[in-house]
Amino acid sequence: MKPIFVVTGAICLIILLQANISTGDTSFRCGNELISLNDTMYQVRDACGEPFSVQSIGEKKTYKILKDDQLRIESITYLTEWIYKSNNGIYVLTFEGSRLAKKEYIYK
After folding, report:
1. Domains located in the chain, CATH noted
2. pLDDT band at 95, cuts 50/70/90?
3. End-to-end CA distance of the chain
4. What does pTM read for this prediction?
C-alpha cells in the first residue's frame, strides 16, 4: 500500500510544480504592478516606466491562401523589443503590434 501513496504523491507534486512554472511565465511584477502577456505597451510603460532600450526587431506577416493557390498578405504586425534592467538581470519584452507577446529574463 505504501508504494502507491508514494507514486501518487510524486505525480501530484510534479503536476503542481508544472502548474506553478507555467503560470509564472505569463506574468511578472514591475514595481507594485503585475504585468501579463497580452498587456499593451501603454500598460507596461505606465507600470514599469521608460525602458532602457527600445528597438524594432522585425515583422510578422499573416497570409491567406486564395482559390488559385496564391498567397495574399492579410496583415503585417511589427515586432518591438523593450529591455528593462533590474538588480539581478535584464527583462527582454517582445511586443507584437502593441501587445506583449513574450518575456525573457536574463540573469547576470
Report:
1. 28-107 (3.30.1450)
2. very high
3. 47
4. 0.68
